[in-house]
Amino acid sequence: MTATRFIGITGVKKAGKTTTIEALVPKLREKNYRVGTVKVAFKEVSVDVNNEHYDVIRHRKSGPDKTLFKSSIETVYFENEPRTLRRALKQFGQELDVVLIEAFPKDLIGFPQIALLKEQGQEESVTTDYTVAISSIPEFSIKSKDRRYVPFDELAEVVIKNALPLTPNLNCYHCGYSNCYAFYKEVTAGRREITDCDLYGQEGAFFELTVNGEPVQCKLFVQDVITGVVTAILKTLKIEEKHLKNVELKFSLKQESEDHE
Fold first, then answer.
1. Is the pLDDT of residue 258 over 60?
2. Quick check: pTM over 0.85?
3. Which superfamily does 5-166 belong to?
């Protein structure tokens, strides 16, 4: 399976972001894409099921790490902890082809974005260096002279062409830029190809290092060293490399007693 690709649907409040997602999902599904949708709240707010299932709210307020709500028609999974958007998307995007993210532009730095106009002349205020298209929902029917303008009914093709996988976030400099965001800015502008990233196409070689539950960025050299050492150790344990599909290593470090002298 190829890497999950992401694209943002942005604009000012009430510009039609949700309406756009409602229109895009069936069009993408008709093309056999597995589609996910994400809503990034613009303020601190908690989402719960309706009052008919108030017990779920009570469950969450008791302070568990996770809560699962299951009915005959849907399954809702709550992780009762804040996460970075990138970390949440990495987990959420598994087994999906395309994820549409509804958010304001400032929340989607590093993601290709479709900007929606609510009024004439808003281009500068709603676009960023990552904007790949400008459009307007039929209710407003605003056209733009900006070269990035695309009619609303053609946005599904914009998604297919411009959605990108998550940035590797390694800042390895192999692409010649100071960080992954700078490289992705060039990709969204059409000046570079995503295949110029050394990590693109290596999604099967998944690598993640966490310390105290938080991910640690590892450049390619470090990944290769750690993977090589662990693989060599497993070989000494008579585990053949061809049988290695997924390896997890987790350990805790002993802490010296403060009273130790």
1. no
2. no
3. P-loop containing nucleotide triphosphate hydrolases (3.40.50.300)
